[in-house]
TrEMBL record:
Annotated keywords: Signal
Organism annotation: Cohnella luojiensis
Superkingdom, taxonomy of origin: Bacteria
Signal peptide: 1-22
Protein name: Copper amine oxidase-like N-terminal domain-containing protein
Length: 163
């Protein structure tokens, strides 16, 4: 669970960091496609992330606080600095989490919600890649969707086992 959440959030941080360099008014007036909850180590944050035209925008301050980083904004650049007391985060696997442990009903519910949210984002991204005719992106998103579906099946199995 921890690796899954950390991997998703780290990806979101990297995506948002790159967006900080883009034209700040480029999304002005655009429709928000979706709003997603953010879960860090099984705890749902009050802040939400939004998707606009297939790009996810995550609140830098809320997310960095949750994962133990300080965030600063200077000269149109977002700086992340790991806090001294922050735990070491390891993202060393792209495989679904399979370690044996007892999962709380809340952990499972939040993980299913997160995995379903990622599935919706991946579906939109795949459709966008298909519209562009970008074969590399299509292949990437198809593989991601397959992995995400396997992960969702794992969480649904855990939910069924608890009932």
């Amino acid at each position: 669970m921890k690796k899954i959440v950390i991997a998703f959030l780290s990806g979101a941080l990297l995506m948002v960091g790159g967006q900080a360099l883009a034209d700040p008014l480029s999304n002005f007036g655009k429709k928000v496609d979706a709003e997603y909850s953010i879960v860090v180590n099984g705890k749902m944050l009050e802040a939400k992330t939004v998707a606009v035209d297939g790009v996810t925008f995550t609140p830098n301050r809320a997310l960095s606080d949750a994962i133990g980083y300080d965030v600063a904004f200077k000269d149109k650049v977002v700086y992340y600095t790991k806090r001294e007391e922050a735990p070491e985060l390891s993202i060393d696997s792209t495989e679904p989490v399979t370690e044996s442990r007892q999962w709380s009903a809340e952990d499972i519910r939040a993980s299913i919600e997160l995995t379903e949210s990622r599935a919706r984002f991946a579906d939109k991204s795949l459709k966008y890649a298909i519209e562009k005719g970008d074969e590399v992106e299509i292949t990437k998103w198809e593989a991601y969707i397959e992995k995400n579906n396997a992960e969702l099946a794992l969480w649904l199995e855990r939910k069924a086992a608890q009932q």
